[in-house]
Design goal:
Length: 363
């Protein structure tokens, strides 16, 4: 019997999403079928509009949460009825995957950014039998049902609120993971976070969880800075301040860490100038902006680009859920929910900044 899903299909980079009935292929040996309860809308989903020749038509979405409806013959990580959070795809066999850093999987780009299987095939077709790419970040969860490899599914307890936890699969994991895993920030250290969106505020929450002594948030919007203070920032600085770096460093030698979530060249350069010798700067934004630096700006410093917080979702997402349920990681304060059929409004609100983390709910 053919399995179908109602999906928000992106057919043209300049057009709204199109709601369509899509047919899904039979499951492969390590694949599972997930009934989605919710899915976050992430900035990277907007980036896909600039990849039209490569991806479209496609089902996007990569912060899904739901229950397992069916499993392939070789699936051994989850079972039918399990509650799962969906995260990025990884091969599970390369050196990086085996060493606990699957976000640096040797096949990360083809597995996550093409919305296709490694062999170029897809497992979804429209009403006319035409192919629709449906492996965006291994899941394509802007749909009521999604086919996912078991490596992308993280089992959570049955009492977890699946309307909230989808963003842990990417945006929240990226912010908090960069602080807690890539930086390994220690109690008493200092950090500045550029951009108080979902990723940046997740980083603030992670820094508070780690026991940072000085947590500085930078943004252009005072309302977001006010929220950053409520969530654990010790200081905030308007991004338009003419003495931005001096305000961040308090005219001192610089902080221990800086995280840029904006992808703006001038902001990334300010992040580099905000840390002192021995400090580290980490960049996470999906951006084509470049950097122009004098070598002396890097004196004694390190800089790196971090994918998915350098976290292993199988370990890190349950950890975040545990901290959230204990009241120590209130990421749900960033969420605004929308019915699935309001996906275009959720995208617009995400783009304008009216919503920090839109989450679409399925009926």
């Amino acid at each position: 019997m053919t399995t179908t899903t109602t999906a928000a299909v992106l057919r043209d980079p300049e057009s709204p999403f199109s709601f369509e009935e899509v047919a899904l292929a039979d499951l492969g040996p390590t694949e599972i079928l997930v009934d989605l309860v919710s899915v976050g809308f992430c900035h990277t989903d907007v980036v896909a509009r600039g990849m039209a020749a490569y991806v479209l038509p496609a089902i996007l979405g990569h912060e899904g949460a739901g229950t397992v409806a069916a499993v392939g013959s070789d699936v051994d990580r989850v079972a039918v009825g399990d509650a799962v959070v969906l995260s990025f795809a990884s091969c599970g066999a390369c050196d990086q995957c085996l060493s606990g850093t699957p976000s640096y999987c040797a096949l990360f780009t083809p597995l996550n950014m093409s919305a296709r299987n490694l062999d170029g095939t897809v497992s979804a077709t429209d009403a006319d039998g035409n192919e629709i790419a449906n492996r965006w970040f291994g899941q394509s969860s802007f749909a009521t049902r999604a086919i996912v490899d078991q490596n992308s599914a993280v089992r959570v307890a049955p009492d977890v609120d699946l309307t909230k936890v989808g963003p842990l699969g990417c945006g929240i994991q990226t912010g908090a993971g960069t602080v807690l895993r890539a930086m390994d920030l220690q109690p008493g250290q200092s950090i500045v976070v550029f951009g108080a969106g979902a990723v940046g505020l997740a980083a603030v929450l992670g820094a508070k969880l780690a026991g940072a002594a000085d947590i500085v948030a930078v943004d252009l919007h005072q309302s977001r800075l006010d929220l950053a203070l409520e969530l654990g920032a010790t200081r905030v600085v308007l991004g338009s301040d003419r003495r931005l770096v001096e305000k961040i460093t308090d005219d001192g030698p610089g902080l221990d860490f800086a995280l840029d979530t904006t992808g703006v060249s001038s902001v990334m350069e300010a992040a580099i100038d905000s840390v002192g010798p021995g400090g580290a700067v980490m960049l996470v934004a999906a951006s084509e902006a470049g950097l122009s630096l004098h070598p002396t700006q890097l004196t004694g410093k390190t800089i790196s680009y971090v994918l998915e917080g350098a976290a292993d979702p199988q370990e890190f997402i349950p950890y975040l859920v545990e901290k959230w349920q204990a009241g120590e990681f209130p990421f749900d304060r960033l969420i605004r929910t929308y019915p699935f059929d309001q996906i275009d409004k959720a995208e617009a609100d995400s783009h304008s900044g009216d919503a920090i983390k839109p989450v679409l709910l399925f009926s």
